[in-house]
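for the writeup, i need someone to sanity check this before i put it in the appendix. the sequnce is what the collaborator sent (i think, or maybe the updated version? ugh). structure was predicted straight from it, no edits. if anything looks off just tell me and ill rerun, i have time this weekend
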Amino acid sequence: MSLVLDFQRKRGILFVVSGPSGVGKDTVLDRSLQNMEGIIKSVSATTRPPRDTERSGIDYFFYTQERFETEIADAAFLEYENYGSHFYGTPLAPVEQSLAEGTDVVLKIEVKGALNVKQLLPATRLIFIQPPAFSVLEERLIGRGKDTPEKIQQRLEIAKGELDARREYHYLITNDNLETAVNTLCAIIIAERHRIQPESS
């Protein structure tokens, strides 16, 4: 007679992906999720106006300043930050519902927010995406053609601080080759799903 032990996971895993602006987080994450089942990308809320290509509820939830501040007071965000004149945050309820249903959830948020989430939910797995070199990051930001030289320098200064925070993360992916980066992220998710004893730190 064989004994079958049921270690089936009942609750989803929360993943957080961070990295400097221009490192390719969206591309790596979106390509990875196309290859994975049982995982969704959390939709953030913001008070900034939508861009022409953005769709409410898909790219962001677009809140008024008043609504955002009300939800802060109601502790309705897993994390939130104020960048410039606009708020960004992760609504707690949809994340918690998905995790309770056994669905994995991935957040794409900044370093400060990621560390706040880890403090609140220690089982969260943090993944940092870095460029192959700082000079490559600068080239990518210039190549995008989206920002002024002053804005690019500001992003690069922020990136230095974010790169210093890599040691706080569980996994590090270098986005030198897109296919390799995508495969690495998928491998991390698969490995975490097969963990028998989830780590709390």
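DSSP finds seven helices and nine strands in the chain. The longest strand covers residues 77-83.
thx in advance!!
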